[in-house]
Task: inverse folding
């Protein structure tokens, strides 16, 4: 499979000239290169050409290229990405460019510049979920917010009557986190030996982009669990997974499991009411809400 991906999906597709009609070929190659972390001198030259032409390409091509650059070429294409940031009108492209700049060697020096540009972009797109998350991320690099204690989330009384799956993740998603299950009575499940049941879990995407961006890491926050399925994605393989939904993926009635909700519009206060009091003002816990609002789907 590896050899076939390299020859048929990467090399063959990148051999085409980069024009409107071949953008999808190049995007398929980019996806495979991310998964395989594949590079060669010839490939690097083709990526350089794509970076030089970013401004002339479609939004979908720009997104695919930026994912690849973030994952496989950090810092290498700082100048063309920053130029795209200055000229794009698309909030998602802008945020992807900003994240690329932030991870570069010049990231710390560009914080004030990015803060100003993000605020300006929010002036054109008030309340845009991706821009709000980006704005918070930039601010956090200057002064990190204090995370509330886990105690209130772990109390037996928190959402009692519901089975909860807790996913504890590190800030650095290169390292796996841990999943634990709490039953409807508020007790954490134990195995046959009396030890707490826990499973290692990697909540990192292949590109390691933040959770509010498409194909990024698993967002922080609340999800609705409902059943199991088997992944059909080529690059994931036939893996059994828990079906999760975020706000905006389905109706509020489904997400909150409340048949009395007849309103089909989303209200942040419903989500907020699911949180302990000391977590209500902690912005990162709302990431799944804003990721869903931004259009992310199918988190498994």
Result:
């Amino acid at each position: 499979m590896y050899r076939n991906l390299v020859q048929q999906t990467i090399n063959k597709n990148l051999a085409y000239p980069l024009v409107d009609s071949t953008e999808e070929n190049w995007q398929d190659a980019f996806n495979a290169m991310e998964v395989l972390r594949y590079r060669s001198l010839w490939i690097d030259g083709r990526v350089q050409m794509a970076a030089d032409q970013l401004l002339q390409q479609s939004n979908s091509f720009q997104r695919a290229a930026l994912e690849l650059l973030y994952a496989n070429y950090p810092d290498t294409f700082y100048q063309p990405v920053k130029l795209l940031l200055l000229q794009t009108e698309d909030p998602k492209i802008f945020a992807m460019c900003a994240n690329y700049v932030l991870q570069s060697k010049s990231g710390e020096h560009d914080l004030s510049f990015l803060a100003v540009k993000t605020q300006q972009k929010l002036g054109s797109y008030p309340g845009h979920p991706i821009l709000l998350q980006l704005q918070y991320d930039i601010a956090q690099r200057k002064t990190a917010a204090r995370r509330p204690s886990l105690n209130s989330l772990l109390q037996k009384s928190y959402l009692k009557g519901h089975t909860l799956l807790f996913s504890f993740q590190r800030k650095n998603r290169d390292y796996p986190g841990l999943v634990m299950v709490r039953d409807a009575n508020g007790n954490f499940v134990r195995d046959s030996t009396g030890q707490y049941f826990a499973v290692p879990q990697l909540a990192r995407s292949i590109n390691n982009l933040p959770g509010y961006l498409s194909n990024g890491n698993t967002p922080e926050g609340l999800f609705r669990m409902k059943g199991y399925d088997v992944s059909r994605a080529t690059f994931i393989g036939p893996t059994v997974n828990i079906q999760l939904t975020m706000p905006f993926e389905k109706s509020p009635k489904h997400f909150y499991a409340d048949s009395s909700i007849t309103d089909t519009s989303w209200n942040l206060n419903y989500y907020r009411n699911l949180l302990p009091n000391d977590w209500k003002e902690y912005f990162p816990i709302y990431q799944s809400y804003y990721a869903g609002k931004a259009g992310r789907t199918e988190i498994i």
Observations:
- The chain has three domains: 2-142, 150-204, 205-300.
